[in-house]
């Protein structure tokens, strides 16, 4: 693992284990705190993967049995372990795990895509190695979606004729390594009557941009996740800005992290805007702004 954590594409991972003992990881920026598992109140008719509700500083916190949620064996001591309290996509939840191991620093290039054949039921977005041991990076968005699916809200009112015309001129590429997040964005675009191209990695996105360059479907707006294996959204944006044919593209970084803490890094990478997942109305407004910008620039 690289120790150079000063670069814009560096990240810190919190390593933890479940009953099997295999190492898993979550981006440290998604973690609010780590606490011993508190007393839980079981809620009737709750999702089977929800262990109960804890009260944390006066606020209710849904606690997810992560072992059950990802198809692992339950913990040996169901009352033991600890909670990783996460702040993801505008919501907080507790992940019940066996134990927290340590924090490691790496680069996005150290994170490789999941092994071929992992399948749609996999709950990882990538793998890496720490001290010779394989570490699986948890797809926390997929875990949460399996319990409380994010609603893709329909427009409460029709778009103005001007906004509809602007959006019709947007040729959009959506980039996200989470299938759940990708589908949410695509459904929002479909509800707006828009077709879009998709990619599951930054490298695939670059290939798609090259493929469509010079055709009637040439991309002028990119909506990209930040956390991706091999090349993250910041590195992808810098690559776009350094490529003459793509330097003009409007880039919206769409992240499950708090967008406020990422705005400066996004600006330095060359992104036009950053938005926290997932809000259909806010994504729609961002796309209207993007479409207006590319129209004014003649792209």
Topology:
Elements: E1 10-17, E2 23-27, E3 31-36, E4 50-56, E5 59-65, H1 66-69, E6 82-88, E7 91-97, E8 99-107, E9 124-130, E10 133-138, H2 140-147, H3 161-168, E11 172-175, H4 179-191, E12 196-199, H5 202-212, E13 221-224, H6 233-241, E14 250-255, H7 259-269, E15 273-276, H8 280-296
Helix pairs in contact: 3-8
- Radius of gyration equals 20 Å
- Poorly predicted regions are 1-8
Distance between the termini: 41 Å
- Total beta strand runs: 15
Domain Response regulatory: 171-292
InterPro entries: Chemotax_regulator_CheV, CheW-like_dom_sf, CheW-lke_dom, CheY-like_superfamily, Sig_transdc_resp-reg_receiver
Domain CheW-like: 10-149
Keywords: Phosphoprotein
How would you describe what is shown here?
There is one protein chain. The chain is of the alpha/beta class and 299 residues long. The protein has 2 domains: 10-147, OB fold (Dihydrolipoamide Acetyltransferase, E2P), CATH 2.40.50; 161-296, Response regulator (Rossmann fold), CATH 3.40.50.2300. It is built from 8 helices and 15 strands. Strands 8-1-2-10-9 form a 5-stranded mixed β-sheet, with no helix packed on it. A 5-stranded mixed β-sheet has the order 3-6-7-5-4. A 5-stranded parallel β-sheet has the order 12-11-13-14-15, sandwiched between helices. Helix 3 (161-168) packs across helix 8. The termini are far apart. The model is unreliable at 1-8 (pLDDT under 50).
């Amino acid at each position: 693992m690289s120790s150079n954590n000063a670069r814009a594409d560096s990240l810190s991972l919190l390593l933890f284990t479940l009953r099997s003992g295999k190492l898993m990881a979550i981006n440290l920026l998604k973690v609010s705190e780590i606490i011993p598992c508190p007393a839980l109140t079981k809620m009737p008719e709750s999702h089977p993967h929800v262990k109960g509700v804890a009260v944390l500083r006066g606020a209710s916190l849904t606690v997810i049995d992560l072992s059950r949620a990802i198809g692992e064996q339950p913990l040996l001591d169901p009352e033991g372990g600890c909670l990783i309290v996460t702040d993801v996509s505008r919501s907080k939840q507790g992940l019940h795990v066996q134990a927290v191991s340590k924090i490691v620093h790496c680069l996005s290039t150290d994170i490789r895509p999941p092994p071929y054949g992992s399948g749609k039921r996999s709950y990882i977005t990538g793998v890496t190695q720490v001290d010779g041991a394989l570490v699986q990076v948890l797809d926390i968005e997929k875990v949460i979606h399996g319990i409380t699916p994010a609603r893709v809200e329909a427009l409460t009112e029709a778009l103005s004729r001007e906004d509809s015309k602007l959006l019709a001129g947007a040729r959009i590429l959506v980039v996200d390594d989470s299938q759940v997040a990708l589908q949410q964005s695509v459904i929002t675009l479909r509800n707006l009557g828009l077709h879009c191209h998709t990619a599951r990695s930054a490298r695939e996105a670059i290939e798609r941009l090259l493929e469509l360059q010079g055709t009637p479907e040439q991309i002028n707006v990119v909506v990209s996740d930040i956390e991706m294996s091999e090349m993250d959204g910041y590195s992808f944006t810098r690559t776009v800005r350094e490529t003459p044919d793509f330097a003009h593209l409007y880039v919206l970084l769409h992240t499950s992290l708090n967008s406020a803490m990422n705005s400066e890094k996004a600006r330095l990478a060359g992104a036009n805007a950053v938005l926290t997942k997932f809000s259909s109305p806010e994504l729609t407004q961002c796309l209207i702004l993007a479409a207006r910008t590319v129209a004014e620039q003649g792209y």
